[in-house]
Design goal:
The chain is mostly helical. It has one domain (2-111): Methane Monooxygenase Hydroxylase, Chain G, domain 1 (Up-down Bundle), CATH 1.20.58. The chain is 64% helix and 0% strand. The chain has helices at residues 6-29, 58-82, 84-87, 89-111. Helix 2 (58-82) runs antiparallel to helix 4 (89-111).
């Protein structure tokens, strides 16, 4: 049984060596030249207009979390939809309950104003 995992372990080892080799090679070949623009907190080198510790609205995070939740919903629903006819009624009811819970959550967020950017 352990022989079946040998190719997987070899692939894992080669991947780790590849990643480590890339990091070491980039540190060796990349000359480090710090300039005042590179040491600023912005990647583009633009002069900051305000504080770098500016707080974001909670609504921004609510929309981001909602996007992630509904993106994951798609990941779960696509494989189910492909095999729907072969699976039967049990998984159909489970997916219906899953979509209902997400719809109630979306309705709650909408009623609380979590999707408004005003």
């Amino acid at each position: 049984m352990s022989g079946a995992y040998l190719p997987l372990l070899i692939l894992f080892g080669v991947s780790m060596l590849n990643a480590l080799g890339m990091v070491v090679t980039s540190h060796i070949l990349n000359p480090r030249r710090d300039t005042p623009q590179k040491l600023m907190p912005y990647e583009s080198g633009m002069i900051p207009l305000g504080s770098t510790k500016q707080r974001f609205s909670v609504k921004f995070y609510m929309v981001a979390i909602s996007f992630i939740v509904f993106d994951l919903e798609t990941i779960f629903l696509i494989p189910w939809a492909v095999q729907m006819r072969e699976l039967g009624w049990g998984p159909f009811v489970a997916v219906g309950l899953f979509v209902t819970v997400l719809a109630v959550g979306l309705l709650y967020e909408w009623k609380k104003g979590g999707l408004e950017w005003v």
